[in-house]
Amino acid sequence: MKNRYMNPYLAGTMLGIVLLLAMFISGRGLGASGGIKYCVVSIVGAIDRPHAESSPYYSKYFEDGKKPLKNWLSLEILGLVAGGFISGAISKRLKFKIEKSPKISNTRRLIFAFLGGVFFVYGGQLARGCTSGAALSGMAVLSVAGFVTMMAIFGSAYLFAWFFRNNWI
Amino acid sequence: MGPISSLTVFPEWLDLLIAFLIGTGFGFSLEQAGFSSSRKLAGMFYGYDTTVIKVFFTAAIVALIGSQLLSYFGLLDLTKVFVNEYYVAASIVGGVIMGAGFIMGGFCPGTGLSAMSIGKIDAMVFFIGGLTGAFLFAETYPMIQNLANGYYRGPVKINEALGISPGLFTLLLIVAAVFMFWLSEAAEKRFARPDITEEL
């Protein structure tokens, strides 16, 4: 029998403490989209090294023999997956599943999941952070960038919500 | 006085281990909150599930109050904690694009990773989309770099911009958050969808 989700205020408190620990120990906040960027940089470097080294965008990640997957953020997102798995295992939520409104097909859900990922990480690269790195961590250090990015994300999602309602409700 | 990383240089293995452990706490908290479910996350924008705002603002306020208290007692030097820099156009345009991605995909990168870890196939596809988005950005960087790097304002803080103390702004934020929590609880009753929330 699967367990209920944790009370949101309690989960938020736990998350806030994790963020505080990152600030106190490592002098920075959390992140996620940056880790995805490092995955791509690493893949491109592995498949087409000359392209990576000659590109003004990729080359900085390989300077001085640096490895794009050996940094704080890359290890943090590895931990993210591990932590999620542990939580899912403890709460008996491990299951292969496609979540969506029953009104649409699996294919349609996956197409939008893919597009959502493309848009989200592209936008995150532009804004130099996603909800974790820019918005949440930014709010915790009172950054204007964090605040503005957060409002733009939520405002935009509300604006577009009506158009995608059939995928969810 | 923290951050500890400013007092001592961690050997690389320790720095990476700390990152991994913090990430584990992060992923654990997200999954426990239910953010491994895209339909729960999307509920924020239709009213039937407002977990997103409750978790987000509680976490921000806990970290905000915690860090300011530590600073007040001389335990944390806030000037040594990273503050993300403000590029006006990039923050706004990037945020709008992310919002579209959120409502289409039903995830953000962090929640998507936690969902992937428990077997959500839509999250795995979201992740592949994410890799694609990052690749697209990297490959089209010359076209977007002016937008990305323009209107630079530096690591400016909200209280500086408003001319008030950090403590006062934190208090205002807490008041605003409590109001939003109250609105959220009301919205969940008004827009309730037990057919969705029971299944989650």
What would your notes on this structure say?
Chain A has 169 residues and is mainly α. Helices cover 66% and strands 0% of the residues of chain A. Chain A is built from eight helices and no strands. With 200 residues, chain B is an all-alpha fold. Chain B is built from eleven helices and two strands, in the order ααααβααααβααα. Chain B has helices at 4-7, 12-33, 38-42, 51-72, 88-105, 109-117, 121-139, 141-149, 158-162, 166-190, 194-199; strands at residues 86-87, 152-154. A two-stranded antiparallel sheet of chain B has the order 1-2. At the A-B interface, helix 1, helix 2, helix 4, helix 5 and helix 6 of A face helix 1, helix 2, helix 3, helix 4 and strand 1 of B.
Helices, strands, pairings?
The complex is a heterodimer of chains A (169) and B (200).
Chain A: H1 8-26, H2 33-47, H3 49-54, H4 72-90, H5 106-126, H6 131-140, H7 144-161, H8 165-168
Helix pairs in contact in A: 2-4, 6-7
Chain B: H1 4-7, H2 12-33, H3 38-42, H4 51-72, E1 86-87, H5 88-105, H6 109-117, H7 121-139, H8 141-149, E2 152-154, H9 158-162, H10 166-190, H11 194-199
Antiparallel strand pairs in B: 1-2
Helix pairs in contact in B: 2-6, 4-10, 6-7
Number of strands of chain A: 0
Q: Decide which structural class fits the backbone of chain A.
A: mainly alpha
State the helix count of chain A. Answer: 8
Number of helices of chain B: 11
Main β sheet profile of chain B: 2 strands, antiparallel
β-sheet strand percentage of chain B: under 5%
Low-pLDDT regions of chain A = none
* Helix fraction of chain B by DSSP (H/I, runs of at least 4): over 70%
Instruction: Write down the oligomeric state.
Output: heterodimer
Arithmetic mean pLDDT of chain A: 95
3D shape of chain A:
globular
Got a strand count of chain B?
2
Q: How would you write the strand order of the largest sheet of chain B? A: 1-2
Sequence of secondary-structure elements of chain B: HHHHEHHHHEHHH
Q: What class do helices, strands and sheet pairing of chain B give?
A: mainly alpha
The termini of chain A sit apart by: 26 Å
Pair of chains with the largest interface and how many residues each contributes: A-B, 124 and 129 residues
Which percent range fits the helix content of chain A? 55-70%
From N to C, what is the helix and strand string of chain A?
HHHHHHHH
Taking all Cα atoms into account, the compactness measure Rg of chain A is: 18 Å
